[in-house]
Amino acid sequence: MSKEYNVAILGATGAVGRRMIDQLAKSTIPVKSVKLLASSRSAGTHLKFRNQDLVVEETTPDSFDGVDLVLSSAGGSVSKKFLPEAVKRGAVCVDNTSAFRMDEDVPLVVPEVNPEALKNHHGIIANPNCSTIQMVMALEPVRRKFGLKQIIVSTYQAASGAGQAAIDELKKESQAYLDGKNMQEDAKILPTKGDKKHYPLAFNLLPQIDVLEDSGYSHEEWKMIHETKKIMLNDMNSKDIKVTATCVRVPVPIAHGESVYFTVEDESATAEDIMDVIADFPGDVLQDDTKNQIYPQPINAEGSRDTFVGRIRPDYENKGAFNMWVVSDNLLKGAAWNTVENAEYLVKMGLI
To answer: pTM of the entire structure?
Structure first.
């Protein structure tokens, strides 16, 4: 008889947490019990897991007694406070915050890309940034077959990357704009809640995601650069693949888009070769039929676990260089599903 697992979901009432509940219910993980955890403000909320009505509990260190697996998406400070407590009590944690991503002792894992890294866990596995996940999903089959020398990415990131409150803010601003009112008074979160100024996202583009650093890059851009190297090369500072990024928030509720320019080592590779390896890669869906205007769109990706790739074409000015367009639901493959999928792999690999 296979082992069944006691699972806790930390941050259960958030946009990602609610999706974690749903993805866990649809997963292959043999679940014995589920405990939903959140802040004192959300405690008492009723949520369903499969046909069970569960009451959200306030998180304390003792909440993790008897728990085998923790799925976490409650913010970095909460993860830093509680996940070590969960590990002390014998749990394995998959964390969807930035708290542990750059820790050398914590694997940063996209299961289709670097599942072997799970073997090196010491109780905590980190989920990469949503924008990084979909990019490495699209590029990993290319790297394996043709090698990768350079990546230049420009992102078109949905409001939901900043949480449900950002989606709500986008809707309010959109209505204000249509009513001929000033949108600025509704701008309280974006581009990033902790910064000095806030700007409307509706009918606008914000070339800032997370804080702007002294280097001139935003922290989101920094994350994409270094997470990509850690996932693909197991070294966040590796020079073997050059990576640079420009991250932009766009007025789309859910699902990020990315324009990815990349250079391969094997200059004999063609666009058709690139399409073939992407089409065969688990979790990737090739949508590239320009004659019939078929290409990935956020509105079609919402609700899917897959990463959609299209508009693959060569750079005719530079041999071995290509462009592609990548879209994925940032709340599912970019967050909740990748977290649960990591847990599935932990179970399959006997690592929990």
So the answer is: 0.96
